[in-house]
Every structure is written in C-alpha cells, then in structure tokens.
C-alpha cells in the first residue's frame, strides 16, 4: 500500500515542480494526499465526465496533466458544473494531482513521449530551461530531432495525422515552401506557437504544436517555417505515459496499487466539413 504523499514524492524526483512555469499551478489540486491509494487513474484533463468515470471505477487518486484549478473558485455554487465536480471529488474522497509544464520540461516526460510518437532521432530540447534541481541534468521544453527519411510537406502532414490519430489539422506554410522536404522536426505539446523562432533557430524544417493564433501564423509564414497546428489534445499521450511510469514505480517500490487510464475523450473540438 502507498499514500498520495509517497507517490507525489516519487514523482517530484522525476519532474520537480521547480521546472514548472511561473504562471502554472502544478501539484495538489483537490483532496487529502495523506490518504492511502488503492486505485489510481491517469488523465489529460479533469472534467465532469472524467470524474464520473473515476467514481464508477472506484478510483481514489486522479493523476492529471492539465491542472483542474487554473483559476480559483469565486464561490461554491454547485449549479456551476465546475463546482459540482469539485463537490463530487470531495464527496468520494478522490485526490487530484496535476503535473503540467514540469512534465513538459522533464527529461523522459511529455515532449519526449511526443518525439517518440513521431519517431524522431537524436533529439535535443527546443527551449532551454536550465538544470534539473534534482538530477542536475540539462532540461528544456519541446524537442527537436530527425526523421529517418525526409518527407514532402503533404506526406509529413499525412504522417502526423496518422501518428496522432487526427481527422484534420491546420497547416501554416508560405506558398514558396510547398516543395520543401521535411527532415528536421521540432515538437512542443500544448500551446507552443510563441516558440516558433526557437524552432527556426534550431534549423527545423517543420514544427508541430497547438493553439496557433491568426497573427502569429502570419509571422510564421514570413519566417518560412512549416508549422502543423495539431491541436492541444495531442498531449493525450500523457495518459499512457504517466500510467506506465507509475506502474514501473509501483513494481519497484512494492506498492499494492491498481493503475488505469481514463477512457474519456476530452477533445472539445469536433471537425466539421462542408457537404
């Protein structure tokens, strides 16, 4: 048996909260981490449907990538679905912990998982973040690496759609670059458009990220960088990645812990096409 505090201590040796961005809210979100954990569920987002799933599965600890409490509650009026969700978590004694930009930055974390999905070779960090306070290793957000074989822009787009199981994505490209071959690729999960200049400086032929805004897309075109806005939800890779990490630690530490992965699709966008 283990407690939430033991699990959190083990995780924070892997991805220290000190690696998180200053605006982020990582760590304990809801509940009492000193309680024993019997069943743990990993998820990308903590939404009402995810909490209902956790209750149904008798989960007592939710390990999420995205913080559930980015903004403080101004009241506890449970007519608000978000507040009702908090009430459900507390009523069922479910502890919620989130690892966000610290997991994005840690070696072996989110952006390594995304680079592995793309099968990038010889990867290095995209955005320098200094030194890990625990391991002393150099760390950074995002990854840059090489594809085994160069691809045309169209083939690269189709490759990414298959890898991330996407029905569609937004391509940002200067018309003059249609004939480019894509070999060196940068990737950064979440909202990474502010780092496109780092991708250019790293000699990336293409950059995969999410949440690119209209005016930033114009600037990207002017810099002749091919960018695939694959959406924020590609970070769903964390659901499996976190589960595998925790299972590994559970085996090493002799914890009697059942680990499951959320099956709820928290992608809020539906792609529609003209008939």
What does this structure look like?
This protein has about 280 residues and is of the alpha/beta class. The chain contains 9 helices and 13 strands. It folds into 2 domains: about 130 residues, Udp-n-acetylmuramoylalanyl-d-glutamate--2,6- Diaminopimelate Ligase, Chain: A, domain 1 (3-Layer(aba) Sandwich); about 120 residues, 3-Layer(aba) Sandwich (Udp-n-acetylmuramoylalanyl-d-glutamate--2,6- Diaminopimelate Ligase, Chain: A, domain 1). The strands form 3 sheets. It has a 6-stranded mixed β-sheet with strand order 7-8-10-11-12-9. A 5-stranded mixed β-sheet has the order 2-6-5-4-13. A two-stranded antiparallel sheet has the order 1-3. β5, α3 and β6 form a beta-alpha-beta unit. The termini are far apart.
Strand count: 13
CATH architecture classification name of the largest domain: 3-Layer(aba) Sandwich
Order of helices and strands: EHEEEHEHEHHEEHEEHEHEHE
Here the CATH topology of the largest domain equals: Udp-n-acetylmuramoylalanyl-d-glutamate--2,6- Diaminopimelate Ligase, Chain: A, domain 1
* Unreliable residue stretches: none
Determine Rg (CA atoms, Å).
20 Å
Structural class: alpha/beta
Helix percentage range: 25-40%
Mean pLDDT score, rounded? 97
Number of helices: 9
């Amino acid at each position: 048996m283990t407690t939430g505090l033991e699990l959190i201590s083990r995780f924070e040796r892997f991805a220290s909260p000190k690696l998180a961005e200053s605006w982020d809210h990582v760590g304990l979100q809801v509940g009492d981490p000193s309680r024993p954990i019997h069943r743990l569920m990993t998820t990308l987002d903590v939404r009402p449907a995810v909490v209902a799933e956790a209750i149904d599965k008798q989960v007592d600890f939710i390990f999420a990538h995205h913080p559930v409490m980015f903004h403080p509650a101004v009241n506890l009026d449970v007519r608000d679905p978000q507040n009702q969700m908090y009430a459900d978590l507390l009523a069922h004694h479910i502890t919620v912990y989130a690892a966000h930009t610290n997991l994005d930055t840690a070696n072996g974390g989110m952006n390594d998982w995304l680079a592995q999905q793309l099968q990038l070779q010889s990867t290095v960090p995209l955005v320098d973040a200094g030194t890990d306070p625990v391991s002393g290793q150099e760390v950074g957000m995002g990854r840059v690496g090489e594809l085994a074989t160069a691809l045309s822009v169209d083939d690269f787009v189709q490759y990414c759609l298959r890898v991330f199981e996407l029905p569609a994505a937004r391509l940002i490209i200067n018309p003059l670059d249609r004939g480019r071959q894509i070999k060196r690729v940068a990737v950064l999960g979440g909202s990474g458009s502010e780092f496109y200049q780092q991708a250019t400086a790293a000699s990336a032929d293409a950059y995969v990220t999410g949440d690119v805004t209209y005016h930033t897309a114009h600037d990207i075109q002017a810099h002749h960088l091919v960018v695939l806005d694959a959406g924020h939800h590609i970070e769903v890779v964390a659901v499996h990645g976190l589960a595998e990490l925790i299972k590994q630690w559970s085996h090493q530490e002799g914890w009697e812990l059942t680990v499951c992965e959320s099956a709820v699709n928290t992608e809020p966008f539906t792609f529609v096409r003209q008939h």
